[in-house]
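During the first year of the project, the team set up a workflow for recording each protein of interest as an amino acid sequence followed immediately by a discrete structure-token representation. This format lets reviewers and collaborators read both layers of information side by side without switching files. As required by the reporting guidelines, we include two representative entries from the current panel. The first entry is reproduced here exactly as it appears in our internal archive.
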Amino acid sequence: MKTLLIFTFFLILGPVCCFDVIGYPGGSLRIYCKHEGHGQNKYFCKIGTDECINVQTENTWVHKERLSLYGSSQSLKVFFRNLSLQDSGSYRCGETGRWSNDVELKVKRDPCCLGPSAVTGFLGETLTINCSSPEEFKTETKGFYKEDGNNVIIVISTTESQRNRFSISEDRRSKVVSVRISDVREEDGRLYYCGVWIRWDSVSYLSLFSEIQLQVTERPPTTLKPTATSSEEHLIQMTTVSPGLQDYFKETSAAVLSKEILNKTFTELPQKVVVDALKSVMNESIVHEELNKNNVVHANDILMATEKLVSALVVPVETYNITPITVPNLEIQLLMVGPNAFTVKIPPLTTSTVHLDIDLIGIAEKNQGSAAVSLMSYTNFTTLQDPTLFNTDEATNKTMMSPVVSVTLLRTNITQLTKPVNLTLKHTAEVVPDGELFCVYWKNTEWVVDGCLLLQSNSNHSVCSCVHLSTFALIMQTRPLSDDENNIAMMVIEILAVSVGLVFLSLSLVTFVNYQRSPKLTNTALINLCLTLLLAHLLFLLTQIFLRYIKPLQVLCAVLAGVLHFLFLSAFVWMFIEAVLLFLLVKNLTKLRSRKEGFNWKYLVLIGYIIPLIVVGVSAGLVPKGYGSEKCWLKTDAGFVWSFLGPVCFILAANTFLFLSILVIMTSTLKKVASENLKSKRTERDQRLCKSVFLKTMLQFIILGCSWVLGLFTEGSKVLEMIFLLLNSQQGTFIFLIHCVFNQEVRLLFVRWWRGLYVTRALKSEDDPDTTTSKA
């Protein structure tokens, strides 16, 4: 929690509406707008557009593209299907001229939600359906729903373990909900959803983040074992009698063989030739080369050469065939399926380090009934296993957490997958608690994350889901240990600094209030500056400490944001008033007080509080929903945050100008005094007085808030961030030092107060009989 940085220009802001409704791409939403009484002409519209759907008659469904609307006497139901990121925005449900509710639809990306899926169940058997749930709903009650016409009906929820033939369990650590259906029947074949029901007073919604189409069929009566076709027998014969590597390729050295493979045209090769070529291409002296530009290019050649060699082993099959190949630094599983593959159970593709889940049957259906996929796991591939090739904006430590894995469709014209592929990667290093895992793929010269998501992870394995095929890996990103230590130290220093500042603000305020009757010490600007800074800093700290409890109370969160807006603006206005008064004081070289020379303290109070109140009032009137971000502060919507930053920037610019003017005047005056001291040979005491006045003037830079300008330059610099924190947390400290400790009149009042307290205690001690007796 960067407390003082959040105070100013780098506040973390987020939009929050009256009711937040959360959905996921490919999922659906059921929104229920509650009301009482009958009425007509109910609507659901996207605010700021002409996208609306209306229902004129109660108990009737109206459909428009992906939206359906149903109006009843108690609620207005909205069914939003097949969500996309573009659907995010502000919506309004209501009845013309009677009532309305605003909702903020947020369509969020999450690894769990990859669109609709299809599951096949066999009659009379038991089926398990797994749904990955989003992080947003990790602690919410999950439900398994079925679609019945226009209605969605709850089948079972995680509050119960079993209902009839359905049972449910949830693993919150891996964020997976498992639904088990026993004795599958024909009527079970329908559309199901996994979702979460969120209930509020006026608006409730059902977020359906997973959509599952269950198809029920009879299991085939017999299970055929895979048999070799004539083509496969021919392949076996070729494997035993095929000639050597030199009969197909001129070059056998690893450095140039990959180039020759890429330039040579061939469709089929004996397996022995392919194995020998792979051994040469994956020569350890090549794959262990140090990283440089040329080696990255050569690594790409190796990837394409191995893919081309493996594609030469693809032959037609009736059901399926799996060809395993193992050479140094490379492990391969080649799966080929034919027209009758759906009649048999195909084992998954698995190596020692990776497990592949791919819908090859669906791909074969779109490719004249046949398809082939290769799974290649590279080990000790130094060039590609350099995690520094994963470029990110942040300076972090990166660790390769898996072998390099390539998945390729061979001899097919299919470019679009029927559904995402899942890769279960075995970790090659230990996962640290604060590490962040990324599923990445190789893009020419670097690792990137586009199209790949981390579904789940444990201490030994991670599951990556990708919408395309490529060369994949798992990379862990951690912040350097030194940064963590700095962050902890920064937090401790921050808390201590803010606490010290609040203490001295309190002491300054108590001093000014107790001694304000003295005509020499009256200072309205400083009293109110201390008061507003104290209240603003204290309220902000308390808000951030209890943010987890305040945030769900949206009205309270918005009210606190408005109060903080007012207090901080008021504090800056009082800084400006203090700067003006100090400038006039120095310019006239007389001691100015708010009661004298036309500066009535009542007018100063009006200026100090009315201007911020007007700004807050106008801001709230123009953008009533601009308060209440994720941090209970101002939102960034429509530049609303400038209702704070605008006045603050103006005041900081004005105060800086006034301070520089004061500094010029004081420097000129002190030079004249120093010159007169030399001429008149005045005492050293006068010289010390000049230095003291100059020091006090310099410290006014902080009191006037000019140091807040540093907030514009702290990003990315720990040193400036620390200076910014220390200077601006100690405004109260400097006020106390200059106007109390360094002020002789206040010191005299403190001395009198202390002496009076001491005398009072002494008199009480003399009047105490126990004390008198003991002395006797």
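The second entry, processed by the same pipeline in the following quarter, appears below.
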Amino acid sequence: MFRLLCLSRGLICAKCSAQKSEPFVSLLKSRVKYRDHLMRRFISTQRRTVFTSFKNRLTSLWIFGIGTGFVLALGLKYRDSVSEHCECDVRKTNRTETVSKYRSAIEISRDLLQRIKDEVGAPGMVVGVSVDGNQVWCEGIGYADLENRVPCSPDTVMRIASISKPLTTAAVARLWEDGKIDLDAPVQKYVPEFPEKQFEGENVTITPRMLLSHLSGIRHYEKDAKKVREDKEKAKRLLKPPEKKEEEKEEKKKEEKEEKKEEKGSAKSKEAKTGQRKKEFELEEFYLKDSFENVIQALDLFKDDPLIFKPGSTFLYSTFAFTLLSAVVERAAGHRFLDHMMKMFRDLGMSNTVPDENDPIIYNRSRFYHFNKKGRIVNCPYVDNSYKWAGGGFLSTVGDLLVFGNALLYSYQMAHLKSTDGLLPGFLKPHTAKAMWAPVDKTEASWDKDGMYAQGWLVVEKQQKYGQCRNRRHYVSHTGGAVGASSVLLVLPRESAQVTDQKLTPPQGLVVTIITNMQSVGLNATALKIAQEFDKARDE
């Protein structure tokens, strides 16, 4: 009865049960207790003279009723004058202030995202932004399911594709901290099923560190080693100065012959919407439907194939290298790779991140799309990603990816603090996080020409060449492309000089993630622009 009275008068918050008007609530509580005491006496007292007893008790109840009415009347007046707020009110106020501060950045970013969505013809997109560890904007635009007109929302679950690689890297880093993985040992120490390798007749060693930085020489989806090397050489020639005319003519003739061969032998179609050849999406292994019982079995796809390059010599982005890395994790951890990853997700608080399995019912899972030969959006074919859990096999939400980005940013910035008293330890040790985000020699990345690959991440270092010219900020990112999906996760740390201020506790910086249910969509530049908009708004 007391709670109902308080709720009816707005004196107790229905959500958090906090008492908004402490003095009056205490007074009302005492009156209710007295009322209950009288009622118990009225019911339990032995019968006396009926008329006298009833008359006395009736008088007491009348007095109590008048007193309670007076207290309620006083309370109504008192309620209007009190200025206390419950925790819910404080949260609402803080949320309103945050939205107000970033309103302009949200509007600009929403417009940018809508433009990109329209340009590429993506059915739906979801974006998430956090500033200094606080989520300030999460929104879905378009549809997660075109057929049933299900709109995208912050809870929409999509394929995150190669953002699975940073997740796997975090698992490797933890095992390394625990002394369970030697990053410079031959992979055969953990996975004897993977054969010893040779390159041009010479015995070579592949280590987990090489796998993390794509320097192992293990192929990607293209099996033709000669073709991969030729493509690399073509890319290098574009950067070289012009040579003699005779050599140029010979190169042109070779290129023309190669183009004719490709036209004859290629049974795959071009992407009608963009008019550009999406090589990766034309390869058969990208659409595998075979289910593999474990990551060791998945090695059969590539373990006997020759290396494309000598390990440690040349950067070659490879999802299969991460499949081998998942086998190393499984053996080092002592249990199944997926079990190990799911435990890590629980520790991080990523409750919506799961393997991309077809059988389970996964709430809010999106459907996935691509363009057919006529340029129309169609459903993507069924695929089984059990051959590449570590390199591109997980589903997630923008909320979970923000959690992951902030966890690593927190760990990274702990290394810059003079004192960590009163702060919880990071998910990774500070020196581990710094090593993970340190660029590695001889690496590169196709989605950002300013950066170099580190260990499971692309890293762009701070640089300013000329006064009053471009001031490049330090940031890390990873993009992803899968059947019917594209993604990006970008972390823009606050300037290190500001982080050393003990008044600022990690994480300090921007985390931006975008996921979409359309394949072959470049999102890194968009994520960086959004991060810069929110960075400006924070400092205003």
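For the second entry, the following points were noted during internal review. The radius of gyration is 31 Å. The longest strand covers residues 134-145. Both points are flagged for discussion at the upcoming steering committee meeting.
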